[in-house]
Specification:
about 500 residues, alpha+beta, 13-stranded antiparallel β-sheet, single chain, disordered N terminus, two-stranded antiparallel sheet
Length: about 500
């Protein structure tokens, strides 16, 4: 952190990867090195065959270097489009749930990587109910906390800086806590139906009041709260159930989590999360996810919850229909576009940098911003910091152009190593932004709005091409750790950082 005109700024956000020579990634550079050795071997046997092999090597490497737009290489864009064409040809991008669909049990489970998820209710040692979201394939178990941030209006800057520091300390604590592999903060904005506000107004009317008074209160409540923004914030913490080569049962994990959850909730009190932090129940999560996939039923769900509950179960939370296109996603009676963090954020950040991106929008039925964190265990943080210093020094020594950038990265790596040695934590993070509209005609304006707000926040966002359904469910507060669902798991790729 550095100060500028007495205001704290935040930076040193970099892409955690190793770099090779010539500005190439380490993977591309090693592939090129092996290819050169192979070409030289062929050349000494037959020179014309060696020249042909060299030409083929250049053609193979070029697509991995040439930019293809949207923060991807030409090879990545080609493979994404090819995969989407194959999925559409096989109609595997379309899902029909329910009794009339193609699911074996005729239910409405979440699609994609959320299909395996299971939700169960447990209680902490203090009797507080909480829902445990379990994903058997990765042995992950998550708890979702509903928080009510106080915001930064009429709050002293020193207080805001203190809250940010406590939030960083809370994330660092996750890295020291056994078994925690991920966390997320999901801020969702939507258009409030006004039901709760109207019910609050009418509930305070005395039944013995005059007819005129009751009529006046009724008229006031009719339009009260309509088209006003509603903001909800949820924090998710994810534990791994793997221990010494075996998977622990859901009941074992629930017992362990119930013991540590109260202290994690207490740690959020000073981060700006508000004094009212409570775990979500399975019914809360079911109703929330159902509204996310079909925003048109949100008001009905809210009304049913006010009257005692919806009675929905987890296998009814998913969409009845979805279709994944290359750059957008149809689900029930809505269409969404999701973006992911596509590169290293530019420059430094202030505490208000994300304010515009988090603000409600009237033209968007639901806007969801998910900050995804993966705290690095304390025992590995030192190794990563030292490795980053060595990598930055290597790049700076061999840089022939952009030496200023290389030297800046070298200083940033050394600063990170110094702060880690002083007790700071290292956290991997990403972001998923989802905009949901009710009419496809509103998609262009929604896309323009998100890109404009991302640019104001100095973020490089890119559309999740070919994986819109995955990005959509990853942006929900369900504790899905995306790297654990890839072909090469995070346990391998993290060792390459």
């Amino acid at each position: 952190m550095a100060t500028s005109t007495q205001r704290v700024t935040y930076g040193n956000l970099t892409i955690p990867k190793s770099k090779g020579l010539l500005g190439l990634s380490m993977t591309t550079f090693l592939a090129l090195l092996v290819g050169i050795v192979f070409v030289m071997f062929i050349y000494f046997i037959k020179w014309w065959a060696g020249l042909l092999a060299a030409a083929l090597l250049v053609l193979a490497i070029l697509p991995t270097v040439i930019p293809g737009g949207n923060g991807r290489t030409a090879w990545e864009v080609f493979m994404l489009k090819r995969g989407q064409r194959k999925a559409k040809k096989a109609k595997s991008n379309i899902l029909l749930n329910g009794p009339a669909g193609k699911t074996p049990l005729g239910d409405f489970r979440l699609p994609g990587i959320g299909a395996q998820s299971e939700v169960s209710d447990f209680r902490t040692g203090f009797g507080t109910p909480f829902a445990l979201v379990s994903i058997p394939s990765t042995a992950h178990h998550s708890v979702v906390l509903e928080v009510h941030p106080t915001g930064n209006e009429l709050v002293d800057q020193s207080r805001i800086d203190s809250q940010v520091a406590h939030w960083g300390g809370w994330l660092a604590y996750l890295g020291t806590s056994t078994g925690i592999v991920g966390a997320s903060v999901v801020v969702e904005t939507s258009i409030d139906s006004g039901l709760r506000l109207r019910r609050s107004v009418l509930s305070s009317v005395d039944e013995n009041a005059s007819d005129f008074g009751q009529a006046t209160a009724g008229e006031l409540a009719k339009g009260f709260g309509q088209a006003t923004p509603a903001i909800s914030t949820r924090v998710t913490i994810t534990w791994t159930g793997k221990e010494n080569g075996r998977k622990r049962s859901r009941e074992e994990m629930a017992t362990e989590i119930s013991n540590v959850l109260p202290s994690l909730i207490d740690g959020l009190q000073s981060t700006g999360a508000g004094s009212s932090v409570r775990p979500c129940t399975s019914q809360d999560l079911t109703d929330y996810v159902r509204s996310a996939y079909d925003p048109t039923v949100a008001s009905d769900i809210e009304e049913q919850r006010a009257q005692g509950g919806t009675g929905l179960t987890w296998d009814q939370a998913g969409p009845a229909f979805h279709a994944t296109e290359l750059g957008h996603y149809y689900h029930d009676r809505a269409v969404s576009v999701s973006w992911t963090l596509g590169g290293q954020p530019k420059g430094t950040f202030y505490d208000t940098s994300l304010a515009r991106l988090l603000a409600p929008e009237r033209k968007v039925a639901r806007k969801r911003v998910a900050l995804l964190y993966r705290p690095i265990p304390a025992e590995r943080a030192t190794l990563i910091a030292d490795r980053r210093v060595r990598n930055a020094n290597f790049v700076a020594r061999n840089a022939k152009t952009n030496t200023a950038v290389a030297n800046s990265a070298q200083r940033a790596a050394q600063q990170m190593a110094n702060e880690e040695a002083a007790g700071a934590g290292i956290t991997l993070f990403g972001m998923v932004v989802t905009a949901t509209v009710l009419n496809e005609e509103d998609l262009p304006s929604a896309k323009q709005m998100i890109m404009s707000q991302s640019a104001q926040a100095r973020l490089r966002m890119r559309v999740a091409l070919g994986s819109q359904d995955t990005a959509f469910v990853a942006g929900l507060p369900l504790g899905i750790v995306l790297p654990e669902h890839t072909t090469i798991p995070a346990s391998i790729t993290d060792n390459m950082i």
